[in-house]
Amino acid sequence: MSEEIVLNIEKVQKKFGKFEALKDITFHVNKGEVFGFIGPNGAGKTTTIRTILGIIKASSGKATVFGDDVWKERVQIHQRLAYVPGDVYLWPNLTGGEIIDLFLKMNGEKHTAKTDELIKKFDLDPKKKARTYSKGNRQKVALIAAFSQDAEFYIFDEPTSGLDPLMEEVFQSEVLDLKSRGKSILLSSHILSEVERMCDRIGIIREGTIIEQGTLDEMRHLTRTQFIVITKENAQDVQKIDGVHTFNVDQSNSQKVHFSADADAIETIMKFLTDKTILSIQSTPPTLEDLFLGYYKQSSNLTEVSDHEK
Amino acid sequence: MKNNTKGYLFLNRLNLRRDRFNILIWALALAGLMAGVAFKFEGIYGTPQSIASIQTTLHSPAMKALFGSFDTALNKSSDVFATEMLIFMAIVMIAMNIYFAVRITRGEEDKGLTELISAHAIGRGANFYAATTELILINLTLGILYSVGIQFSGMAGVTAQGSWLIGLGLGAMGLLFGMVGMLMAQLFDNSRSATIMSYFIFGIMYVARMYTDIKNPDQTWWVPLGWIEKIDAFHGNNWLPVLLMVLLSVVLWGLALLYNRTRDIGSGLITVQFGKQRASWLLRGPITLVERLQRHSTIIWIVALFILGTTYGSIFDTIGNILKTNPTMQQVFGKAAVQSANHQILLNFVSVISVVMAALASLPALIAVNKLRGDNNRGYLESVYAKALSRTHIFSGYLLNSIVVGIVSFAASLLGLYLAGNAVLTHGDLSLNTYVHTFVAVAPTITIAIGVAALLNGLAPRLNWISWVYLGYGFFASYLGKLIKMPDWSTKLNGLGWTNEVPLHSVNYTNVSVMLLITLGLIIIGAWGYRRRDLD
Ligand SMILES: Nc1ncnc2c1ncn2[C@@H]1O[C@H](COP(=O)(O)OP(=O)(O)OP(=O)(O)O)[C@@H](O)[C@H]1O
Ligand SMILES: [Mg+2]
């Protein structure tokens, strides 16, 4: 089993002086999956990633990559790992091409045809000095180096925050390519559509704690679907079914009802509505946006979350 | 114009607020140093005998090289002060001004702060004017502090006018180099180059004035740095040099302004945009990376110190000729005695100069080690930390480059001394061995300074400025220690106090070994700390 888990973090805490940046981080990344790591600004994503990379030391808890301790065995781990930081800063006097090569050499790898292909795909001018690069271009340098590396585990910290939509697309296709080759990926991002499109499982972090993790479907399950239904017969009794919330009747049409429903109540609801002869039905699944905004905003009512987990 | 300066007052307050601790520390340190020496002087040079005892030393070429050349007769303690302290204080003022000038203009731009500020409703020139004002304020404040300090120092012969002349003269000299710094900050597109070039200009002037001071002091008027020697405080009280400094400052400021208007934010006049598409075979890890990043400055330092060495060497014929200061000696003691005395003078000169050159060679060495923190804070190392490199390896990249630039530039300065010295000497050449011994005795002082910096960067990077205090103290003690009669133990607080005045005396191998062991210990502790701490 341990061979199948690439990254395992258990109850990791990190204190900066008195400030607890990480309070309770527990999650794992399986081999061959894309794990999305999301949370509001300052939640602790970057701090978690820097702990995984052995740049900072966890105050307590256990973190392993490929089964090895992230602090003690960091050099061996880095041999099989690629990382793109959130803010890429490069030595102004070196060119992008030089930095890409240097990054590869530092991991004992070489500039290959794949590297050239990536430089072309990302549309980077490698002859330019890094001081002339925009934020997006600096990010491209780090991405090209990471993608041309033959690693087993890739860590991206908000890699697309400076990329234009076209480049974002290139990034996504490269990640999906890695995934198809069985690589494991940890992707921290604020762009939810990106996470939705690529990630197999997601962890949500807030104020230094992982408050939720699972597949997208599992998470969807936790929120309610919106319904607008017009029936031939009066269907107002639907509100008596367990799991129906925020029910109201349309003002202009008493046969038209609005409500939201928990995922596990949908079957019962549908049976009930069918009996009333459905004329029109409109259902809106929760958007990821709704889902996450819900999580991001919850401040003190963590209990509600654990209720969901049951 | 109105639009151009919009927000000037706001920026001014913001900048002063941001720099208040920095300014306070510099002002306290410099004014304290100046006042401290001034108050001590009456005790040291209060009697005619004590002045007489140093008179011959001060009139020797070696001392002229360090302190300048003056016509003033030395009768009172204030006379010694108003001459011999000027060059040293000017150097310190210049260092401070280059630091501030580059920091508040180009340094801010490097960090992207100017761009942020420019995006707000603030005129294009406001930042430039605010920086100018800050420099004027700093120099004026220090000038006034100096003046008041000297006036109330209790030295015999002090006059109000003379005190203000020295104080404001040093302030004006500071401002002049503040403007040099600002101009360089416009010409170059990064603060490191701007700083190096500012120091380069200072170095050229320092060497030029040393040369003219020894050969023909009247020609020192051609060197702006030498103007400070011409004020004749407490006697002629000549304000012309101060006026010249202010005028030249205005000219430099005008040039800087011109460049500031014509360039884009973040760019310089001298910018290289393109380079190689692929990394060379050499660029492959932390050591070669740091080497590559510092190659230009390393070469500049080595060449500059070599030139400094040759310049010192080129005055050997003047220095090593005791008959110039003591024409009757040959009749009294005979030719052999004169030659041996000349030889002693040269050895003494080499021992003094080599310590100064070692302090200078330590500068690039400390810059290199302290870059470990600088590069970390700029975020350059974030990707490197995730590579398959041990921390010891990263640490050693900075350390090795530091040791190389420190040691090689020191060796280059001795080589310059050797070649030029023997070229001008008609007889009584100093052997290569003399210089090798000097190297063996003095080079460990550089490695100790590096060790101090390595320790700090490894264990507590936020405190790495202490390495500058260490070096600054060593420079102060070896430059002024004899003049202000610092007690023996206080000069021995720094590695530079343990050289045993080689080649005047022979190498003390115990000192050398202990210094090397201390270096090793400091480095090991630093590396140990670096492996264990959070990199943030
Ligand atoms: N070295 C440090 N010292 C003190 N506090 C720190 C340090 N590093 C991070 N923090 C704090 O830890 C918290 C988490 O920061 P972190 O950068 O991990 O957030 P993040 O989730 O990556 O946010 P973002 O989405 O903005 O990138 C923040 O409050 C931050 O200020
Ligand atoms: Mg972050």
From TrEMBL, chain A:
Q: What is a single molecular function from GO for this protein?
A: ATP binding
> Which Pfam families does the UniProt entry name for this protein?
ABC_tran (PF00005), DrrA1-3_C (PF13732)
What are the entry keywords?
ATP-binding, Nucleotide-binding, Transport
Give start and end of each ABC transporter domain.
7-232
**InterPro entries noted in UniProt:** AAA+_ATPase (IPR003593), ABC_transporter-like_ATP-bd (IPR003439), ABC_transporter-like_CS (IPR017871), ABC_transporter_ATP-binding (IPR050763), DrrA1/2-like_C (IPR025302), P-loop_NTPase (IPR027417)
Q: Which family does it belong to?
A: Belongs to the ABC transporter superfamily.
Full protein name: ABC transporter domain-containing protein
> From which source organism is this entry?
Pediococcus stilesii
Cite the source lineage: Bacteria, Bacillati, Bacillota, Bacilli, Lactobacillales
